């Protein structure tokens, strides 16, 4: 590590007005795009990359990384306020973020999400700065077998997020896995449950419309039902937001979740193809498993928000590690950023640390600056965002519905996707009505395709001998951890149910 060059690179980035302005504009645009259901950080980077063509490399990277980090945080805004994740990786944030909003703590939830996103991003940036070659070499040891076991480990978290009934959680998960099988077989191209004439489903159900339907549209239907029955209560933001950042008492409660989430997000983000969608659920499941009060998760506690949002933004630094060290993008956004490097005549990879070391250090500084810019934008917007819950429900629900439909339509400009969104809104409403959790469906939809593809690839490589996987230490570690997570989650849920039954019995006795 060349400390002098690192200091000079940070100084060059943090004192360049053009870099500061572009990064701040990128962060503002990323937060706004991320807050709109359907407009992901990937889409934002793709839309704005043409504006970077005439810039130098570092200002253009500041713009793109600002969008990246801002979009990661922005997705939590709609997840917390309207039960509609702006981005797929914000889906786990609503598990505790939306209940906090319902309890009149929208401002607190937003500030915790913003602070945790910033801290997770800083952890990712620091790990990227000091450990990127080591982690990149570890990540490249992940073949199909290791990736399959990583996905199995991710799926084991389903039990931890199943709520009161593990059986209902598993039914939801199997329903999600069944949905993943619709469309063309990814290996052989054979249509499953469709014909070749059903072109809208050749690639299966589009994830974003399904996500918006299950959460946002389902919540709208439930809200309209409550209004018809006279049970809908108008929420008013009585919360006085004196400080846009969490108070010290809250920070002391959430810092272990931030630290673990940032490290989990960075590690999983560094594995090409994994991404924040897996990291947030793994981080949430881990935080719930090690908590002394796991029964509080899902009821609206800041620890749940902190665990997911720190992992979310930790992935930004993690995904940059294989990009810079090996020339392999960690996720869809860094694949676009790879294109920006190539357009500037720079080829990321091992030689970049030799021939382009000053540029590498400026990228480190630019990512740190992007997280600071996201924090500034978030601090300016918290008070405004928190007021959204005070809007009359009869006005808010139509607005959310229009935004949701536009978000579903914007992915492929397809009316069919709008139909999918509405249909799954009805399904989500019915499942909520009968207390089937929706989060296991979401996790299964994210991990199902990865599970199938890596399993088939592994079996082809091993000529059908699945048990050859025991020769992989990495795969066996993930298998062992998955087993521990399953056993411990079942034990935890049994303990929670027993405690709640005792409390009900004591209440009835009184």
Structural commentary:
The longest helix is centred in the C-terminal third of the chain and has 37 residues, at 473-509. This protein has a two-stranded antiparallel ribbon. The chain has one domain (3-235, 247-509). The chain starts with a helix and ends with a helix. The protein has helices at 3-14, 17-35, 41-48, 57-82, 94-102, 106-139, 144-156, 166-180, 207-228, 248-269, 276-290, 302-326, 332-343, 352-355, 357-386, 393-412, 415-433, 439-461, 473-509; strands at 183-184, 191-192. The chain contains 19 helices and 2 strands. Strand 1 (183-184) and strand 2 (191-192) form a beta hairpin. It is an all-alpha fold. Helix 6 (106-139) packs parallel to helix 10, helix 6 (106-139) runs parallel beside helix 12 and helix 9 crosses helix 17.
Strand order of the largest sheet: 1-2
Instruction: Catalogue the unreliable spans.
Output: none
- End-to-end distance: 67 Å
Structural class: mainly alpha
Largest sheet: 2 strands, antiparallel
Strand content bin: under 5%
* Total helical segments: 19
Q: Which descriptor suits the 3D outline?
A: globular
